Amino acid sequence: MKICNILPRKIILPILTASAIAFPVKTAEECAARMASDIPISMVYNSNKIQPRDLDGLKIVADTNFEGGISHRFDDESIQKLKKRILMPDSLLEYKLPIENTSNVYLEPFGYFFANRPYGNKTRPHLGLDIFASQFSRKPKKPVLIKAPVDGVIISNKRARESDNSISNCVVLLGRDGRRYAFDHMARPNDYKDSVPMPTVGTIMKAGDSIGYVGSTGETAMWHLHLTVMTDEEAEAQNASDAWRNLASRIKYCELRGQVNPLDREKAGPIADSLCKYGGAKPGAVGEFKL
């Protein structure tokens, strides 16, 4: 009996000790890192959704525009923080059309449609892509939804006043690709029954989520979406350009920084390919705006 009681201790304990030495216990962080390293990179990114915590510490500021309207936006420092937190390569993102109905879509090109329009004694270019979703640019009988072209976060919200049409409804989306997408001339809430509300600053969007309806708010009588694409790289180049600085100083109510041709695949990215699903749109078909 004594032999039976002693043998297991002498045999089993050394085995357990040797096992502990050969296979040290890993921390939870080490296990998670090892698991992540074994997962294909695409799966890691696809599981990495934008979370409310990505908005922690960001600051919202209010601006008063030239007509006395109030806009809300994240400040520049907050936008750069958010960009780092949600950034993802183009190749791992899904892109959608901002307007799904392609049967009546008509595009007016970047830079050349009324390229220098009079505003008092001033002129301004057309820096964006006009997307008309109804014949003769009339009010569509049924509301035409505007959808987020890519995952991102709303970083700016500008609301039109009820009494006049000098300021448009506009929201800006910071996409996970690092580009900013602005949707202008959006409809007012009372333009359609049971209207989709405009998303507020900090709203997390997925590609295909509803942003609002095509409208005619602002300096236009035509029902259409004015789509703008902006990049930080282009903003830096424009800030270093005397011509762009002079233009911005003359047109203080317009957001000019960083605007690129939405059909330019090199600068605007995959959204250019999506937009070319509309009839008549061709990549690079329209030249860059030149001052």
What does this structure look like?
The protein is of the alpha+beta class and 291 residues long. Helix content is 25%, strand content 21%. The chain has eight helices and 14 strands. It has helices at residues 2-22, 28-37, 41-46, 76-86, 232-239, 242-250, 265-268, 271-275, and strands spanning 60-64, 70-74, 106-108, 117-119, 122-124, 129-132, 145-147, 152-158, 169-175, 180-186, 204-205, 210-213, 225-230, 259-260. The strands form three sheets. Strands 1, 2, 3, 6, 8, 9, 10, 11, 13 and 14 form a ten-stranded antiparallel beta sheet that branches. A two-stranded antiparallel ribbon has the order 4-5. The chain has a two-stranded antiparallel sheet with strand order 7-12. Strand 9 (169-175) and strand 10 (180-186) form a beta hairpin. It is globular. Residues 1-47 and 112-116 have low confidence and may be disordered.
